[in-house]
Fold this protein.
Amino acid sequence: MMTTRPMTARLDQPREIRRTLLPRPHYDPESFGRLSERIARFLGTARFIVYMTVFIAVWLAWNVFAPSFLRWDPYPFIFLTLILSLQASYAAPLILLAQNRQDDRDRVQYEQDRSRNDRTIADTEYLTREIAGLRVALNEVVTRDFLRSELQQIIKELDAKEHVP
C-alpha cells in the first residue's frame, strides 16, 4: 500500500516558472533603496524647500499675470494641485523606505555595539581576575625592601653577637 505525501517544495529542483498575464518588473532592491535614500535626503533639505517655493511662485505668477492665451492652469490651479499631490504620493513611500533601511542599519549597528560591549566586559573581567591573581602571587614573593630590611636586621644581630665577649 502506497502512502501519498503532500507535495512540498524540493530544494534540489528549481521552481516552476509562474505564468502571469502581466510581466513582473525586475529591479534591484538595493539600488532602488539607495535611490530612495538619496531622494529622501534631498526632500529633507532647505534647498528642496527653496526650489519648491520658487517653482510654485513662478507657477502662480505665470498663471495669474501671463496673457490669458498663455496660461495653462487658471485660478483654482487644479493642475498644480495634481502635481503637488503626485509628488507627495511618491515622496511619502520613498521616505518610509529610506527610514526602514536606516532602521535596519541602526539595528545592525546596535547588535554590533552590543556584542563589542559584551566582549569588552568579558575582557575586563578576565583582566580583573588576572590582576587579582598577580596580587595574590605578589603577596607571597619577597620584595626588595623587605629583603633589605631583613638583611640589615641580620647584620645588626651578627654585629651584636661579635661585640659580646
In short: The radius of gyration is 40 Å.
